[in-house]
Structures are given as C-alpha cells and as structure tokens.
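A favour, since you know our structure tokens better than I do. Just paste the record in under my message, thanks.
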Amino acid sequence: MKKRKSPCIDVCEFTGPSGWCLGCGRTREECARWKKMKPYEANIIEKELIRRMSKIAQTPPKASQG
C-alpha cells in the first residue's frame, strides 16, 4: 500500500480560535494521527482542508500591538 503524502508545508503555526495550522489547515490532533489514519478518514480531512484553507485566507491578519 502506498503511503499517503502529508499536506504539511513546514509552517506549523497553530493560531486563532479554530486551532488550524496556518500552513496545512489541520488541527494538532489531525497532524499527530495523520500517518495512522485509515484512507477514508484522511480523504475526508483532505477535502475539508480545502474549505479550511480558504477560510484562513479570507481571515484578515491581526494588527500587531506595539
């Protein structure tokens, strides 16, 4: 069986109320479990990541304080 490629792009910044990574859109839990997920579960998450990343892209950046 071929290994599933991780959507990680080495940004790994989990910020905001959603807890999604700004690089790939996954949660910390999803990242930790990725290699052990069943193919159907990973497929569902991959489809969800498209929606999440679109939502992240539409969120205005926070103004820096200082």
In short: The mean pLDDT is 86.
